[in-house]
Amino acid sequence: MNLDTSLAPKFVTFHYFIKWFIESFGSIPYFIAIVGGVGTVCVYAFVRCIKASEWEQSVMIFIFALIILGGLIGLGIDISNGYAFDPLLNK
Fold it and tell me: pLDDT digits over 28-37, tens only?
């Protein structure tokens, strides 16, 4: 019996959405739409903090962006079975 009693949040919904998106549209549109969209929001927030001279927040946003974008890229490559940039293998 495998009973998971941890209090950690389960992000299975995001995994299923990303898997559906990659299977429906391919990995290149995933990287452009999802990863690019999240990256654009992070860059916008980073630039606003730089213009307001909020240096500590800009560093935190930069680190947050590295973690989130790295995770999204890794998950996208993992879901597409490592063939993220080969359009012939992504059907």
Answer: 899 999 999 9
